[in-house]
Amino acid sequence: MIAFVRGEVAALTLSSAVLEVGGVGLELMCTPGTLATLRTGSKATLATSMVVREDSLTLFGFVDDDEKQTFELVQTASGVGPKVAQAMVAVLSPDDLRRAIASDDVKTLTKVPGIGQKGAQRIILELKDRIGAPTSGAAGPRPVSAEPWRDQVQQGLVGLGWSAKDADKAVDAVAGEAGDVPDVAALLRAALRTLSRA
């Protein structure tokens, strides 16, 4: 088990960061919020969780241990794999997630891509007694907006080195393409195209 990774950020992509550790580049799958804290060429320490599958070993990177533990805990709910768990910690802070589960807030959980009404109810039922209380009394630093895809795309752009102002303009420019079920990756690509034309 790899508990954390410390090294120089060698590369950043839309969904991952490569950290050079002892001459080896380790690719960590990260949320846009985590990627936004990293800069190519700077040193970084990320808490990690390794997901072992029959055909792959995937390392997920997190800004802190609380986010990592939340990611691992939500996967114990039936029907929640690493991709949905990562989407949960991308859209909701660990405390927002605890609050949503403790208060039976199905609406907040269904804002996470990949979680429907029944899935949210199952997560609440299975995790309510295990997720614990929020660690801070106030609302978390990442409130859920009416359109969570906006925050994800904006954070992804900032993580790739664009200014927050440029990122916000690009998000507004692609808002019309969001539709009823926004595809965050496609919207991020569209926003990048908008920025490259500017």
TrEMBL record:
Gene Ontology process terms (BP): DNA recombination; DNA repair
GO MF entries: ATP binding; four-way junction DNA binding; four-way junction helicase activity
SUPFAM superfamilies: DNA helicase RuvA subunit, C-terminal domain, Nucleic acid-binding proteins, RuvA domain 2-like
Domain of life of the source: Bacteria
Record's keyword terms, sorted: ATP-binding, Cytoplasm, DNA damage, DNA recombination, DNA repair, DNA-binding, Helicase, Hydrolase, Nucleotide-binding
Region (Domain III): 149-198
Subunit-structure text: Homotetramer. Forms an RuvA(8)-RuvB(12)-Holliday junction (HJ) complex. HJ DNA is sandwiched between 2 RuvA tetramers; dsDNA enters through RuvA and exits via RuvB. An RuvB hexamer assembles on each DNA strand where it exits the tetramer. Each RuvB hexamer is contacted by two RuvA subunits (via domain III) on 2 adjacent RuvB subunits; this complex drives branch migration. In the full resolvosome a probable DNA-RuvA(4)-RuvB(12)-RuvC(2) complex forms which resolves the HJ.
Job description of the protein: The RuvA-RuvB-RuvC complex processes Holliday junction (HJ) DNA during genetic recombination and DNA repair, while the RuvA-RuvB complex plays an important role in the rescue of blocked DNA replication forks via replication fork reversal (RFR). RuvA specifically binds to HJ cruciform DNA, conferring on it an open structure. The RuvB hexamer acts as an ATP-dependent pump, pulling dsDNA into and through the RuvAB complex. HJ branch migration allows RuvC to scan DNA until it finds its consensus sequence, where it cleaves and resolves the cruciform DNA.
Protein known as: Holliday junction branch migration complex subunit RuvA
Lineage, opening ranks: Bacteria, Bacillati, Actinomycetota, Actinomycetes, Propionibacteriales
